[in-house]
Amino acid sequence: MFAHRVCIAAHEPVRQVDRYRSEKAQNVDDPILRKLSHDLRGILSPAMMVAERLQNNADPAIRNAATLILESLDRAVARLGEVSK
Question: Which end of the chain is more exposed for a tag (fewer CB within 10 A), N or C?
Protein backbone atom coordinates (compact mmCIF):
# COMPACT_ATOMS: atom_id res chain seq x y z
CA MET A 1 0.00 0.00 0.00
CA PHE A 2 2.87 2.40 0.77
CA ALA A 3 4.37 1.82 -2.68
CA HIS A 4 1.04 2.79 -4.21
CA ARG A 5 1.14 6.12 -2.36
CA VAL A 6 4.69 6.74 -3.55
CA CYS A 7 3.61 6.03 -7.11
CA ILE A 8 0.73 8.49 -6.87
CA ALA A 9 2.99 11.10 -5.27
CA ALA A 10 5.49 10.68 -8.09
CA HIS A 11 2.80 11.60 -10.62
CA GLU A 12 1.64 14.71 -8.76
CA PRO A 13 4.15 17.11 -10.43
CA VAL A 14 2.92 15.89 -13.82
CA ARG A 15 -0.68 16.58 -12.78
CA GLN A 16 0.30 20.07 -11.63
CA VAL A 17 1.94 20.80 -14.99
CA ASP A 18 -1.13 19.46 -16.83
CA ARG A 19 -3.39 21.64 -14.68
CA TYR A 20 -1.22 24.70 -15.41
CA ARG A 21 -1.30 23.96 -19.14
CA SER A 22 -5.08 23.52 -19.01
CA GLU A 23 -5.57 26.85 -17.26
CA LYS A 24 -3.22 28.55 -19.70
CA ALA A 25 -4.94 26.96 -22.70
CA GLN A 26 -8.36 28.11 -21.51
CA ASN A 27 -7.16 31.69 -21.68
CA VAL A 28 -6.31 31.41 -25.38
CA ASP A 29 -8.78 33.06 -27.74
CA ASP A 30 -6.99 32.77 -31.05
CA PRO A 31 -8.96 31.76 -34.15
CA ILE A 32 -5.84 30.24 -35.72
CA LEU A 33 -5.33 27.95 -32.71
CA ARG A 34 -9.00 26.95 -32.77
CA LYS A 35 -8.75 26.09 -36.48
CA LEU A 36 -5.53 24.15 -35.97
CA SER A 37 -7.09 22.28 -33.06
CA HIS A 38 -10.11 21.39 -35.20
CA ASP A 39 -7.89 20.18 -38.04
CA LEU A 40 -5.71 18.07 -35.73
CA ARG A 41 -8.76 16.39 -34.19
CA GLY A 42 -9.85 15.49 -37.72
CA ILE A 43 -6.45 13.99 -38.43
CA LEU A 44 -6.54 11.94 -35.19
CA SER A 45 -10.04 10.54 -35.78
CA PRO A 46 -9.03 7.75 -38.20
CA ALA A 47 -6.28 6.64 -35.83
CA MET A 48 -8.83 6.42 -33.02
CA MET A 49 -11.21 4.38 -35.16
CA VAL A 50 -8.48 1.90 -36.12
CA ALA A 51 -7.32 1.59 -32.51
CA GLU A 52 -10.91 0.89 -31.44
CA ARG A 53 -11.11 -1.91 -33.99
CA LEU A 54 -7.78 -3.32 -32.81
CA GLN A 55 -9.21 -3.66 -29.31
CA ASN A 56 -11.32 -6.54 -30.66
CA ASN A 57 -8.27 -8.46 -31.87
CA ALA A 58 -7.73 -11.98 -30.54
CA ASP A 59 -4.11 -11.25 -29.62
CA PRO A 60 -3.90 -9.76 -26.09
CA ALA A 61 -0.71 -7.85 -26.94
CA ILE A 62 -2.50 -6.07 -29.78
CA ARG A 63 -5.50 -5.33 -27.54
CA ASN A 64 -3.18 -3.85 -24.90
CA ALA A 65 -1.36 -1.75 -27.49
CA ALA A 66 -4.69 -0.53 -28.87
CA THR A 67 -5.80 0.51 -25.40
CA LEU A 68 -2.55 2.42 -24.86
CA ILE A 69 -2.96 4.15 -28.23
CA LEU A 70 -6.57 5.09 -27.47
CA GLU A 71 -5.68 6.50 -24.06
CA SER A 72 -2.94 8.63 -25.61
CA LEU A 73 -5.21 9.84 -28.39
CA ASP A 74 -7.97 10.63 -25.88
CA ARG A 75 -5.54 12.79 -23.91
CA ALA A 76 -4.44 14.56 -27.09
CA VAL A 77 -8.01 15.22 -28.18
CA ALA A 78 -8.90 16.47 -24.69
CA ARG A 79 -5.95 18.84 -24.75
CA LEU A 80 -7.01 20.10 -28.18
CA GLY A 81 -10.52 20.61 -26.85
CA GLU A 82 -9.14 22.83 -24.12
CA VAL A 83 -7.44 25.05 -26.67
CA SER A 84 -10.44 25.36 -28.97
CA LYS A 85 -12.91 26.49 -26.29
Answer: N
